[in-house]
Amino acid sequence: MARSLNKVILIGNLTRDPEMRYTPSGTAVCTFTVATNRQWKTESGDTKEDAEFHRIVAWDKLAEICSQMLSKGKKVYVEGRLQTRKWEGQDGNTRYTTEVVISEMLLLDKAGETSDANYEDESQEMPDDFEEEMEKEKVDKSKKETTKKDASKKEDSDEEEDIPF
């Protein structure tokens, strides 16, 4: 049998908040859409831009993590496989959808960054005197290390004097 590969890697932004659901057996399923874009220049030198929208599906623990960590506008790396599903719509027509079933997800936004301008988590903000406190800790730590070295040197010299010859 010939080898094959079904692997998708995407880096893009969420177009909406993730939707979390559970199957009748209790398995977590999270769906969201990631937008990717590309730019190119035409022969006339004009810059064109195009966006693609990808339906993403996560299962089990990864689904729970996605629903907790992701939100609209977040930049995300996802890795998984393409899967096409077929079903019959309410109108009786056969419908198809192609999704990326992910096995890996990395949040690419920096800690504390959010796309929601109204979101404020004061516990994540640095205090105004953060820089000063860090400098004080460095100075205190270096003083303690110097004191330990001096004490260690003194102990070594005391040990040498206590040895009877």
Could you please describe the fold and organization of this structure?
With 165 residues, the protein is α+β, with helices and mostly antiparallel strands. It has two domains: 8-110, OB fold (Dihydrolipoamide Acetyltransferase, E2P); 125-165. Helices cover 26% and strands 40% of the residues. It has two helices and six strands; from the N terminus they run ββββαββα. It has helices spanning 60-69, 130-162, and strands at residues 8-14, 19-22, 28-41, 47-59, 75-88, 94-107. Strands 1-3-4-6-5 form a five-stranded mixed β-barrel. A hairpin with a 5-residue loop joins β5 (75-88) and β6 (94-107).
Give a quick summary of the entry.
With 165 residues, the chain is an alpha+beta fold. Helices cover 26% and strands 40% of the residues. The N and C termini lie far apart (83 Å).
- Main structural class: alpha+beta
Low-confidence stretches: 115-131
Q: Determine the strand fraction and express it as a percent band.
A: 35-45%
The DSSP helix count reads 2
Task: Tell me the Rg in angstroms.
Answer: 28 Å
* CA-CA gap between termini: 83 Å
Order of helices and strands: EEEEHEEH
The rough form would be described as globular
The CATH architecture classification of the largest domain is Beta Barrel
Instruction: Kindly report the CATH topology of the largest domain.
Output: OB fold (Dihydrolipoamide Acetyltransferase, E2P)
Please provide the count of β strands.
6
**Count of separate structural domains:** 2
Largest sheet features = 5 strands, mixed, barrel
Under the CATH scheme, which class of the largest domain? Answer: Mainly Beta
Overall residue-averaged pLDDT value: 79
Can you list the strand order of the major beta sheet?
1-3-4-6-5
Helix content: 25-40%
CATH superfamily of the largest domain: Nucleic acid-binding proteins
